[in-house]
Amino acid sequence: MIPVTTFKGKKVALFGLGGSGLATAEALVAGGAEVTAWDDNPDSVAKAAAAGIPTADLRHVDWRVFAAFVLSPGVPLTHPKPHWSVDLAHQAGVEIIGDVELFVRERRAHAPDCPFIAITGTNGKSTTTALIAHILKTSGRDTQLGGNIGTAVLTLEPPQTGRFYVVECSSYQIDLAPTLNATAGILLNLTPDHLDRHGTIQHYADIKERLVAGSGTAVIGVDDSFSSLIADRVERAGAKVVRISRRQVLADGIYAKGSALMRAQGGSSSLFTDLAGIQTLRGGHNAQNAAAAVAACLAVGVGEKDIVEGLRTFPGLRHRMQPVARKGEIVFVNDSKATNADAAAPALSSYDRIYWIAGGLPKEGGIASLAPFFPKIVKAYLIGEAAPAFAATLGEAVPYEISGTLERAVTHAAEDAARDRQGPAAVMLSPACASFDQYKNFEVRGDAFVGHVAALEGVTMLI
């Protein structure tokens, strides 16, 4: 835990007592703050009270006594309308912040020079975050990994000299971190997302820009117009900018040329490393993730040899294009995190002969947008509620069966792939659906896939 000492002896209001909210309340109390916490869910309030967190309905307290209001990132700050607690904070003139802001204040107070890499973007955040942490750890550095990737940032070890932090930041967290100042900040890309919470794509982009604008080195993907303009603005403001690209040759920065990562300086390029053969970094999207990781690690002083070794040994992110087993020329890929069509596209683009397991609780739009990848699919195995609709979309373009269950789909896909004599093949779970019709979450679904694969005869597990 990181005790929040910067509010020692001060009164702090807190709303939102889910996982990260409860961790934040505990960190504040541990640091000596006088916390008053609340949540709209009575069960969460009861859990916090049982953990020793002072609770009171924030609608019935004097807000003028609070030095700050800490809001959990899942609670609406601006759109579709501010939560009632936000309105009360505004009326009292109380600063509204989140857990990432508390972390950066603790870092500044206790170890301002400890390296801190912050990562954001619409797509690829988690893979890039995990990749950077892996590079740092394999190079022997004391590494703390947290944030939006699933570990609340204030549950990490406290800042100290020589300790490296790798923190994934959602737009919600950035919106609540006005003094975010990473050693290296990464903006991977921007496409419309979370507009129900930000109103417009421009507001969403403005929030993302804050992360790189306050960083010592700004690593920015320039393959979309919003991010490219942000790179130009941040550079004009005097910041050091390292541009990355998966689609274009750069005069300065890190870019992908096929599977090769090129490092450009002053218009001259040289090979940094080749990602060919690294199964966990297949595809153009992962080339961008790797380029960002290279740029950030160089910015915090990691040597080229250590970076290349970290890339080579990266085990992948669980449930995201994760090779989990092999049988001859067949690779079994767990991409359970692909809960909509856009999220499934990277995995489908990365293999040439795919036995595709898809379906679950359908999302709006179905799988029509994946039609360009249909020629790569040898056969589809459809499960869950989406199976009939997905079958209608596939039509005569892709052979399919309605398997119904994941276990049956894995068995049949493996049998069919074993008969394939046309080269390497992938049996891939990339559902393009939520899991909730059959599984608690995508993690449970992915673990079930791994279990069914492990039960097959003759497979060699990779995890």
Automatic annotation (TrEMBL):
Pathway: Cell wall biogenesis; peptidoglycan biosynthesis. ATP binds at residues 121-127. It catalyses: UDP-N-acetyl-alpha-D-muramoyl-L-alanine + D-glutamate + ATP = UDP-N-acetyl-alpha-D-muramoyl-L-alanyl-D-glutamate + ADP + phosphate + H(+). It is an enzyme of class 6 (ligase). GO terms for cellular component: cytoplasm. It comes from the Bacteria. InterPro entries: Folylpolyglutamate_synth_CS, Mur-like_cat_sf, Mur_ligase_C_dom_sf, Mur_ligase_cen, MurD. One of its GO terms (molecular function) is UDP-N-acetylmuramoylalanine-D-glutamate ligase activity. Residues 1-25 form the signal peptide. It is found in: Cytoplasm. GO terms for biological process: cell division; cell wall organization; peptidoglycan biosynthetic process; regulation of cell shape. Cell wall formation. Catalyzes the addition of glutamate to the nucleotide precursor UDP-N-acetylmuramoyl-L-alanine (UMA). This is UDP-N-acetylmuramoylalanine--D-glutamate ligase. It comes from Sinorhizobium saheli.
